[in-house]
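Request: Show me your protein:
***
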Amino acid sequence: MWNYREFAIGILAGGFAVSCSAQVLTPIQSHASQKPPATSPRYVNPLSIEDSRSIGDPFVLRFHGTYYLFLSGGMVWTSNDLVNWKHEEVIPPPGIPVDAPAAFQLGDFVYLTGNDIGFLRSRSPLGPWEYIGDFKDDSGKAIKVFDPMVFQDDDGRVYLYYSGRSTKGIYGVELDRKDPTKFLAAPTHFFQFNSAHTWERFGSANSYSEVSWIEAPWMTKRNGTYYLQYSASGTYWTTYAVGVYTGKHPLGPFTYDSSSPILVDHKGLINGTGHHCIIQAPDGSTWALYTVLLRNWNRHPGTDRRVGMDPVGFDSHGSMFIKGPTETPQWAPGVKASPWTGNDSGSIPLSIDASYTVSSEGPGRNAPYAFDNNARTWWEPAATDSRPWLTLDLGDATAEDPDQQFLINSSRILFSYSGSHPEPYRYKIEISKDGKNFQAVVDKTTNSTFSTVAFDEIAPITGRYVRLTLTGWQQGTVPGVAEFTVFGMPVRTGGE
């Protein structure tokens, strides 16, 4: 069906993308296809990032053609496509942890900062890093900032944005390009928590009237307009989301965009979506990487997070939006010329609340927790089960219904893990039409890469039954599967 809004989005947003160094929108030169071939690469949220556990607050820097991903929970990963990330061993100077990282390039150096520290400096995003000092306000006094973000405008001037914590809102100041630890003036306070913006309120139902946590500023410039983005109500709530103010100068004044929040929970598996960054893909399209809340026990101390990604666009009014959070396999950056108008690959979840058989279940960790579309529950086999398996009947209906088959083309596994040095999960996936004769379609029985998320492409195959068998995990622990999602589409069995 003709969609005027998406047509308008394509006209308005299709000619621009984010400049990687300055976050200033510049013309796209894209050769991506609007009709991707079946073999095009895909991804699914949350992203599978090797050698990562609880991670969040993503910051991506493009440096000499390579993407560098900094995270709370580890640094650094590299990629050429924003989908496949390789972990690089990088160690900051002793005693200087980098949480909520932010980086930018100035001259021959890369500068890196984070919560309550000044700048680290290196000639490479992989280090070695040296600490060059704390931030200093306009009086020369050392100052600590929370959730910093550095923006370089197209005139070369450099600005720091940060959170005042709690309800205090977002601040900004110009930095000295000769010494970026120095403020050139007193910081400007742009806005604070506004209880009338219901989505900013604390709680997974936004139930607090006067409490919030306004944080994670990000600046993007397009056609002379500055889009000051931020997150609320707090990273441990499913309502964590991204909003935006706009202005005509990097230090404001800024006006609230009533289309906020531009990224928010749709009551699915992917929620708690905030603290993002914006980056240009190799084809020039614009993407957001953002934090995903996986689990939350007793708020912050028990918060377990991952990272998601989706395309960015602008509507006919110039309002910024993020086309997400998506829950199903999406085309990778560079596949579609206008991903912000629709990037879904057409595969749907087939396994939610399916019928099942299972080798064993641990106390309180029943098998249906592995396919209930909820990352906060998980299946554990019995501690004595040395080769646990779970078989899903995707097409179970009633005796009067036809045999429903599906064209299966991918799967996602969210693993539970424990221990300080988790070992890789090993597993295999098999498909059957009749529940008797199974064919192996994924063999990770010799997997040597640790990841808490696995997305496996499957050569399209018709079947009704899917069996997951765990063959290896960290010794001395009981394995766990928080979510096993099978993707594909139904095969018509007759009718019209």
About this structure: Residues 164 and 170 are 6 Å apart (CA to CA). The longest strand covers residues 302-314. The chain has one helix and 35 strands. Residues 1-22 have pLDDT under 50 and may be disordered.
